[in-house]
Amino acid sequence: MARVAGVDIPNNKRVEFSLRYIHGIGPTRAKAVVARVGLEGNPRVGDLTEDELNRVREAVDKSGYLIEGDLRRDTNQNIRRLVDIGSYRGLRHRRNLPTRGQRTRTNARTNRGARKTVAGRRRTAQKK
Fold first, then answer.
1. Is 25 inside a domain boundary?
2. What is the pLDDT of residue 124?
3. Judgement on whether residues 37 and 9 belong to the same structural domain of the protein
4. pLDDT of residue 125
């Protein structure tokens, strides 16, 4: 596996798709890196020469975008700021609930956790 920006990217995939394993690089930025390096036909990472791999590393490092640790740190600081100032979104983060207005009465099982059974909450059969 080749190492780019401190991340092992898979050798058996195309460069454009392998770069997406780096946190902060999505489809658009991956295409931009491949175009900037000038790789013909989007080869697999394992087929790249050492020179081409070094050019990919330099293009990712000099892209000017936040990636990996810096991006994770920045995101966590933004969330921490919301929690500290006591905003609504900060409270939702603190309680581990959806922050963007989704309903939680019936959904959001992943965030709310497993169902907790409550005594006396049985539905009565409706008579016709």
1. yes
2. 67
3. yes
4. 62
Query: In which residue ranges of the chain is pLDDT below 70?
Result: 124-128
| Same-domain status, 56 and 6 | yes
> pTM of the full predicted structure?
0.74
Range of the domain at 21: 2-61
Are residues 21 and 52 both part of a single domain?
yes
Closest CA to 81 of 71, 93, 70: 93
| Residue 49: both structure tokens together | 């020469």
3-state secondary structure 40-77: CCCCEHHHCCHHHHHHHHHHHHCCCCCCHHHHHHHHHH
Position 101 scores a pLDDT of: 87
User: Cα separation of 105 and 85, whole Å?
Assistant: 27
- Identify the pLDDT of residue 127: 55
User: Do 33 and 7 share a structural domain?
Assistant: yes
d(CA 52, CA 41): 13
